[in-house]
Amino acid sequence: MDEYLEYLKVVKKRSERTLYQYRSILREFTRFEPITPETWKEYLNTISKNAPATQRNKLVVVKNYLNWRADRGLLNAEERFWNEAEPPRHTVLPKAIELDEVRRIIEACDNPLYRAIFKVLANTGMRVSEIVNLSVHDISVNETARIRIKGKGNKERIINVSKDLVEELVRSGFFEKKPSVRSIQRAVKRYARKAGIRKKVTPHIFRHSFAVALIERGIPLNKIQALLGHANISTTSIYLKIASEGVEVPKII
User: Fold this and answer.
1) 108 shares a domain with 76
2) Domain carrying residue 25
3) Which residues are marked as active site?
4) Is residue 9 domain-shared with residue 58, that is, in the same domain?
5) What is the pTM of this model?
6) What is the mean pLDDT of each run of 10 residues along the chain (253 residues)?
7) How many CB atoms lie within 10 A of CB 243?
8) Contacts of 174 (CB under 8 A, 6+ apart)
9) Torsion angle of the four alpha carbons 17, 18, 21, 24, in this order, in degrees rounded to the nearest 10
10) Structural domain count, the chain
11) 113 shares its domain with 224
12) How far apart are CA 187 and CA 193, in angstroms?
């Protein structure tokens, strides 16, 4: 297992966070080794108690690990029976709020710092973990403004935004007194209540609403994938389902 994780770190350039998750999953799996069709069934039965998304994640990690070992002759299994296992197909749709509700939250916010943060989240689809890791060096302003975002797996993407948005973020003192993820989560809940929104609201809902807004505006799915930093376009395509179920988004804020 350690050799495989070192391979992922050095060759595949996986982030420390990803390696930590993989190590946890593989440690659980090692209880079922040596791998045989029988022990594989036991493992599948064990993880069936997890949520569908967790099952899918574990299967991807373990199957890749086993295939890596088989490719190097480290397994005696002639048939890669583990590849026959399919993850559960149940998909939980992400929640989105209408842009009118996003506007109400922003208008209800009387704190310049959080108001600027909410606007950036609403107009970029950024994850809250990405905005708290944002540095002033990630912003460039010429004729237009650009934000370099460091996403999952240390993958970077560039988003063009208005100069006004960037200037408001800088004026708010964001880079001098950057809040934590938890502080932003609490602020979103507080100002959603102040705006009279009773449904559960988290910073991530801004991201979902941004994605649905782009779909409603006819932006190609592959471009939305790039803007959101999704590794797989199938993740982005989930928003097509939300858009078809009546979330009205006339324009991005």
Assistant:
1) no
2) 2-84
3) 127, 152, 204, 207, 230, 239
4) yes
5) 0.58
6) 88 86 92 88 88 84 90 79 73 62 93 96 90 92 84 81 92 94 95 92 87 79 81 66 41 47
7) 18
8) 113, 116, 117, 134
9) -100
10) 2
11) yes
12) 10
- Could you give the CA distance from residue 253 to residue 45 in angstroms, rounded to a whole number? 47
Residue with tokens 């979103």: 188
Please indicate, yes or no, whether residues 185 and 117 belong to a single structural domain of this protein: yes
